[in-house]
Amino acid sequence: MSHDRRDAGFKRRTRVDDALATLLDGVGAHGRTEPIPIAEADGRVVAEPVDAPAPVPGYDRAAMDGYAVRAEDTFGASSRSPAVLRATDRDGDVASGEAARVHTGSDLPEGADAVVMIEHVEEVGDEVETFDAVAEGENVGDAGEDVAAGQRLYDPGHVLRPSDLGLLKSVGLRDVTVYEPPEVAVIPTGEELVQADPGPGQVIETNGLTVSRLVERWGGTARYREIVTDDEAALSAAIERDLDADVVVTTGGSSVGERDLLPDVVAGLGEVLVHGVALKPGHPVCLGDVDGTPVISLPGYPVACIVNAVQFLRPVQKRAGGTTAEPFPTRRARLDRKVPSEPGTRTFARVRLAIDDGGENGGSDAADDSASDPPLVATPTRASGSGVLSSVALAAGWVVVPERREGLDAGDVVDVELWEVTE
Amino acid sequence: MSHDRRDAGFKRRTRVDDALATLLDGVGAHGRTEPIPIAEADGRVVAEPVDAPAPVPGYDRAAMDGYAVRAEDTFGASSRSPAVLRATDRDGDVASGEAARVHTGSDLPEGADAVVMIEHVEEVGDEVETFDAVAEGENVGDAGEDVAAGQRLYDPGHVLRPSDLGLLKSVGLRDVTVYEPPEVAVIPTGEELVQADPGPGQVIETNGLTVSRLVERWGGTARYREIVTDDEAALSAAIERDLDADVVVTTGGSSVGERDLLPDVVAGLGEVLVHGVALKPGHPVCLGDVDGTPVISLPGYPVACIVNAVQFLRPVQKRAGGTTAEPFPTRRARLDRKVPSEPGTRTFARVRLAIDDGGENGGSDAADDSASDPPLVATPTRASGSGVLSSVALAAGWVVVPERREGLDAGDVVDVELWEVTE
Predict the structure, then answer these.
(1) CA nearest B199 in A: which residue?
(2) Contact B105 A332 (CB under 8 A)
(3) Pair B186, B306 in one domain
(4) Which of B101, B113, B250, B282 could serve as a FRET partner for A331 with CA atoms 20 to 30 Å apart?
(5) Nearest residue in chain B measured CA to CA from A164
(6) What is the pTM of this model?
(7) Given A210, A331, A366, which is nearest B399 (Cβ)?
(8) Pair B255, B312 in one domain
């Protein structure tokens, strides 16, 4: 291997969006589904349309504390001239001329069609004097007011959250059919890598671990494999073993010069779709397809590895799992230094976030530009270098500089992408 | 119980911030810690300061492909007059007059102190002609360049993310000492509640399930208890049974008029700190302390229950677990309808988010007001009503209207809090 060969693949770099579109083109939901109890479905992806089998509430209910009545029995009643009704048990029917005590949310007794508020009633022995006329349906919440029977609740692809589980349970469902988590094989490669106790020239494997844990956060199941050395036959065998996975990812070593055998290995097994993407850090990424399984070869520099995992692995894994990658949440902040970038290349600049001491008014206001959080200042962690794991591990997020711009200036207001969120 | 009693406790409502400060005042980290393998530590809270035991990289390394040399051997070399060195094996020492082939990231051979880039070298048999003079340290990355030995990496309270695990592993650590997840007992209460198959007047329990799953998302362990009926003795017994938990939460029934026995029950066991908070929906929340255990009685209306869980349970649980509740991520959006609110009350308005079709330029730009995402429009899901689970389960987040404002107007740009994030 000569030094020249390393750069040979990157003369023409593909734009990020084009590279992703090419990779996604052949990928669909894996189609393996399972019914699971609702209580265990947080974070899972809905696989079939979910309709409400029953209305919520399941019955007409009192919307106020008071007396359930037949509305017509109150017609003409007023503060001067009450209608006098007989108190009856709320568990029985309410017949003409009767009134039954109800509380907000109680089911409306059979026969009743309205509720007189308790404030407009005087209880005199067995009699209920109502000083207000109510119309049919007044102070009554209808069955199905919250959810109608048959109403579509969720379409396939929706990722369930705790409040969704409550809604699913409330309509009487016990199970929900979801996609199985997509399987992602993560294969660390590099002859210099060891899992522990590095000797001279050896480096501890970290990329595979980090990517595996990202896979799990993104709703997948990671197969975190043994380290494979820089040998074409060994790499081929490792990839072939995992072609039953939904996605295969290799990660390069963390610091030693790339051997970059993977493009040849992938070409030998299947097809290289893209080699070299116009993003920084991390352009040497290689996207391939082997027998219909996407194979993503992530570069070895830790930050480059993570950037590419977020750009390519996450969308592919999400799609295989039956859903789509939502944009990350962001926080607005003001850059305190310039961020250089090359036009034509999408650049990811890691930043730390801190509260801007210059902004005195720390008060919250939902509706102005200072927004509900104190103004933040974003400090790029290092101007360059992609080998520095600590610059990403210690950063809060990154600023994305789009292809059409040539850097960002100190003072620019930016959206910092939070690609590792803690709830 | 009369209808009057329900409102009696809320004549003076405590401001949200004051209520929270009062509740947090008696709460500290629970102090139970455990060492766990780094690979299993995603999302866990660091319990002891973590310093790097070893530098990263652990050795001086080549920063370029080329030849490792003693710098002084190249002094005077130029493109016209090369210094001629003997090629030697990179696994041995580099003696005076020798040069050893290295790749980017290789450890620097013993004896060498600089690297001549491969572009400035010509290999002639066993000889290496270097056409460039290098200074000591040139093209060499120093040991500890990424992380210095002894460097503080994380302070207690830091919540570990995948990239943090990589960093911890890279410095040679195998375990990290974290707080055990805080234990949160979740007790659903309400005589009308059933777990399934509701009859007339019965309602399926959902609040306890939703809150339990939120507890788990927030890094805690939920004890999701059986439903307890509206009976003071039963409620007391249920709370006392769980006083070994770090936090006890009760949830009210989902729709039937509040019996609101909990304030009396808590007062009987310990102390009611706050009853009635100036927030909407959900003012009837009750915050108490029983033998040092925070007891939070969440209201029964589903949205009110969730709003209060986020405002009070989450910060208390996080503090018990050794960390702090970070602000939620937000997304900027433009309101398409007004949101009414009362001054003095903090109001949470659920909204759906959609991409604004009016904004044609969907392009991304990190540094202007349209930000890196398409402009979003926020539609309040319902103007009022806190009993509507679907309004929160189907919403993307909520807009917080601070106490000092009287509503928000259509067209206002707001930050939508995403309180249930999917990564």
Answers:
(1) A58
(2) no
(3) yes
(4) B282
(5) B393
(6) 0.88
(7) A366
(8) yes
DSSP element (H, E) containing B151:
none
Quote the longest CA-to-CA distance of chain A: 103
Residues A207, B166: C-beta atoms closer than 8 Å: yes
How close A288 gets to chain B, by Cα (Å)? 25
A88/chain B closest Cα distance in angstroms: 17
Is A147 within the bounds of a domain? no
A254 vs B contacts (CB less than 8 Å)? 170
Tens of pLDDT along chain A (423 residues) come to 333 444 444 457 999 999 999 999 989 999 999 999 999 999 999 999 999 998 888 889 888 889 999 999 999 999 899 999 999 987 778 999 999 998 887 889 999 999 999 999 999 999 999 999 999 999 998 888 888 899 999 999 999 999 999 999 999 999 999 999 999 999 999 988 999 998 888 889 999 999 999 999 999 999 999 999 999 999 999 999 999 999 999 998 644 444 679 999 999 999 999 999 999 988 889 999 999 999 999 998 888 999 999 999 999 999 999 999 988 888 889 999 999 999 999 999 999 888 876 544 444 444 444 344 557 899 988 644 445 566 666 677 899 999 999 999 999 999 899 888 777
The shortest CB-CB distance from B210 to any of A162, A365, A409 is to A162
How many Cβ atoms from other residues are within 10 Å of residue A403's Cβ? Answer: 17
Domain membership flag for residue B84: yes
CB-CB under 8 Å, B365 with A405: yes
pLDDT of residue A391: 63
Minimal C-alpha gap between A271 and chain B (Å): 28
Q: Is the peptide bond before B57 cis (omega within 30 degrees of 0)?
A: yes
Residue B316 sits in the same domain as residue B334: no
Q: Are A399 and A351 in contact (CB under 8 A)?
A: yes
Q: Which of A170, A223, A306, A348 to mutate to test the interface with B (most CBs of B within 10 A)?
A: A170
The tokens for A342 are: 């090359």
Pair A335, A407 in one domain: yes
Nearest chain B residue (CA) to A194 = B170
Q: Which residues contact B192 (CB under 8 A, 6 or more apart)?
A: A105, B201, B202, B203, B253, B255, B256
Q: Which residues of A touch B61 (CB under 8 A)?
A: 255
CATH number where B102 lies? 2.170.190.11
Of the pLDDT bands very low, low, confident and very high (cuts 50, 70, 90), residue B11 is low
Reported as half-sphere exposure (CB side, CA atoms, 13 A), residue A407 has a value of 10
For A166, which of B58, B61, B210 is closest by C-beta distance?
B210
Q: Given strand A293-298, what is the order of strands in its sheet?
A: A221-224, A183-188, A247-251, A293-298, A286-290, A271-275
Which one of B320, B339, B356 terminates a domain?
Answer: B320
* 3-state secondary structure (DSSP) of residue B264: helix
Chain A nearest CA to B76, separation (Å): 26
Contact A421 B423 (CB under 8 A): yes
| Segment B222-277, tens digit of pLDDT | 999 999 999 999 999 999 999 999 999 999 864 444 467 999 999 999 999 999 99
Domain identity same for A310 and A410:
no
- Total domains in the fold of chain B: 4
Collapsed DSSP state (helix, strand, coil) of residue B295: strand
Chain A residue with minimal CA distance to B64?
A: A257
Distance from CA of A266 to the nearest CA of B (A): 24
Query: DSSP readout, A349-394?
Result: EEEEEEE-TT-------TTSTTTTS--EEEEES-SS-S--HHHHHT
